[in-house]
Each structure stands twice: as C-alpha cells, then as structure tokens.
Amino acid sequence: MTSRTEHTGRRYVVTGAASGIGAATAALLRARGFEVIGCDLDDADVIADLSTPDGRRTLVERVAERGTVDAVLAIAGGGRTGLLETNYFGAVATLEGLRPLLIGSPAPRAVAISSTSSLAPADAKIVQACLDGDESTAVALLTADPALTESGAGYGIAKRALNRWVRRTAPTPEWAGAGIALNVVASGVVDTPAAAWILTDDDVRKAVETAAPQPFGGFPGRPEWIAELVCWLAGPDNHFVTGQIVFADGGSEASLLSDTHWR
C-alpha cells in the first residue's frame, strides 16, 4: 500500500475550514504534511461567503491564483439561514468552479459533505429547482412555506439535492472520465458549532437522537472521525470509489432504512 508520506506535495482546498468538520479536516491534512488552502467567512486563507454568487466567484478566483490543486473538499454548510444557498448552491459552485484546477493533478479528488438529514422527506419541487440550477425559484419555494422554514427543513432538502447532483455528475466524462473521483460523506450529528442548536437544547437533542439514533460511536460524534474518511476519499490511495454517498453516522442510516435498498 502506498504510504502517506509519498504524497506530501498535494494541495487541498477546504471550505468551511474555520470550524467543525472543515477545521478538523484541515488540521488532519496539515498534520500529514499537505498544503491546505482554507476557505471560510473569516479566519481563513480565502475569505468568501458561499451563500452569495459574488462570494462563490471570489472563492474560485482567489483559489485559481494559486494554480493547480489536487483535491477540493466542499465542507462549508450548516447554519440556520441561507440553507439552500450555502449547502447546495455554494457547494456545487465550489466543485464546478474549481474542477478545472484539478485537471493538472496526478490524482484529482473531490468530496462534499452531506448529512443524514438528507434521508428526511423533501419537497420534490425545491429539490428539482436546485438540480435545475434555479436558485431564485428554489429559495422562493422554501421561504413561501412557513412549515419548512420554521422546521429548518431546507438543510435536509439542500443535502438531498447535493446527493443527487453528485450521483448524476460523478460518472460523467468531465469527472470520472477525467480521472476525478467525486464522492459525498453524509455525516450524522457531530459536535460542531453548526450543530450547537441541536446539542444545547435538551428537547431538540432528545428528539433528534430518538429520530436518528447513532448506536456506534454515540451521540454526538466527533468531527475528526468524519475528517478521517474525507481525507481517504480525497487522497491518491482512493483508486476506485466515486459517485458514492458514504454515511459516516454511527449507524443512523442503517438503523432507519435497514435493508430497504436490497429487497
């Protein structure tokens, strides 16, 4: 097996690098000798707001100034506002915008972060608007429904759309055909600032833990556990995995769906 030390020249772009899973991933990569271009709203190498078109353009432009990259990790997300804008449109813009910079790498990889929230029922019209690239319609549909906005359902809708986008996109000539592996890590509930509203409210925490149990590893998980998987999928030792939604959730997805897909 190829050792990590042979790949210390790799350059990784990590969005959401200032906290949570992004910070844990950036720290792990740097500890292994890799170069990391951290991107976030503040305290990062590249400052950009992925909830806006201008911020997305800024991200691509600033990263492109540094030349070829070996992996793009679209981790930025979460929050209680701008759920579709950041978690879907920001993630897709990051991946699409930086894809040309991956072409020069000998082992180009891309990973996006999703969530077990993507398993929840989702408004099909909003998901389709996301997949159509129609941000204004998607946001309008979400904000027009008080039940969706009050429940924070936009987060799960965005993540479901992201899962579907990756499944459609990963096998295409522009990605797999160009040697670029594109995968998703769907995280369970982990101890991050984005999940603080779940973890600090006892009633919400109990409801979430009951609805989405995590029998392996406990509730909440640790961001560095997710980072380990992200780093492998984004590394050159991943020779054969693409287009996958890999649940790193303490067994939550298996608990909820059992063997449904295999019947």
Offer a quick outline of the entry.
The protein is 43% helix and 13% strand. With 263 residues, it is of the alpha/beta class.
SSE class = alpha/beta
Number of helices: 11
Distance from first to last alpha carbon: 36 Å
Largest sheet, order of strands side by side?
A: 3-2-1-4-5-6-7
**Sequence of secondary-structure elements:** EHEEHEHEHHHHEHHHEH
Q: What would the average pLDDT be, to the nearest integer? A: 94
Helix percent band: 40-55%
Could you tell me the strand content as a percent range?
5-15%
Q: pLDDT below 50 for ≥5 consecutive residues: which ranges?
A: 1-5
- Rg, Cα atoms, Å: 17 Å
- Which overall shape is indicated by the principal axes computed on the Cα atoms? globular
Largest sheet: 7 strands, parallel
Quantity of strands, as a count: 7
Describe the protein.
There is one protein chain. This protein has 263 residues and is α/β, with parallel strands linked by helices. It has eleven helices and seven strands. The chain has helices at residues 20-31, 53-64, 83-102, 124-131, 135-143, 146-151, 154-169, 196-199, 202-211, 223-233, 252-257; strands at residues 11-15, 35-40, 46-47, 71-74, 109-115, 181-187, 245-248. It has a seven-stranded parallel β-sheet with strand order 3-2-1-4-5-6-7, sandwiched between helices. It is globular. The model is unreliable at 1-5 (pLDDT under 50).
